[in-house]
Structure formats: structure tokens, C-alpha cells
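INFO batch 0412 | record 1 of 1 | parsing
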Amino acid sequence: MSESNATSQDYEAKRAQLLSESLELCDDFSKFSDEYSFLCDAFAAVAREPECITPPTSEGIWYVSYRLKMQVRSYRDKINSIHDGLCALKRE
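INFO prediction complete | emitting C-alpha cells
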């Protein structure tokens, strides 16, 4: 196998991997977006009824907020990884 053929196969393999990761990320983000929308509505409903914000409710809101923040960071990291991979392919 020639070196240019191997390089072309490596390029196509990396491209296919990045495409797969991108599609999976889009699917995951779509599900996350639906869940996030529901949670925003729930938080708004709780805020309209401040008397229902008990210590356990407050703790639950903190926990869900923390999980959302971690999920957003995870998406950011995955997007950056795909972006870096695409930039590397562009330079090749």
C-alpha cells in the first residue's frame, strides 16, 4: 500500500469518526435541550410560588442546577474536541 493511499485512508477514517461523534452529539444535545426546557419551566413554576421553596426543594434545585452545569461543560468539551479534530483534518 502506498503512503498516499494510507494517508487518504487515515484521513477518511478520522473524518468518519468525527462525523459519527458529531451526529451522536447532536442527538444527545437534542434530548438534553428537551429536558432542559422542561426544567426551566419547572424552576419558573417554583419561583412563582416562593412558599413552596422548602429546604429540600432548595437542595433539589441546587443539585439539578449543578448537574445541568456539568452537562453543559461536557457538551462544550465534546464540541471543542470535534472542532480540534476538524481543524487538524483541514491542515492535512
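INFO post-check: Residues 3-48 form the longest helix (46 residues).
INFO record closed
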